[in-house]
Amino acid sequence: xxxxxxxxxxxxxxxxxxxxxxxxxxxxxxxxxxxxxxxxxxxxxxxxxxxxxxxxxxxxxxxxxxxxxxxxx
Length: 73
Fold this sequence. Notes:
Elements: H1 14-26, H2 31-45, E1 62-63, E2 69-70
Antiparallel strand pairs: 1-2
């Protein structure tokens, strides 16, 4: 019996969504499949499956979807 899938929901900026859909199409996959691949890689690694780099000092941090600055520590 095939395992039932469950939705994952995330809010992103419209431009980010459009760029993501275009990029996944260019590499021959779907947004849903790309998210499933990321989740699988994250779970195998127990963390992000790539290096996370903090912005340089003085860059002002990273703006989240609301436009608020997020400090990385």
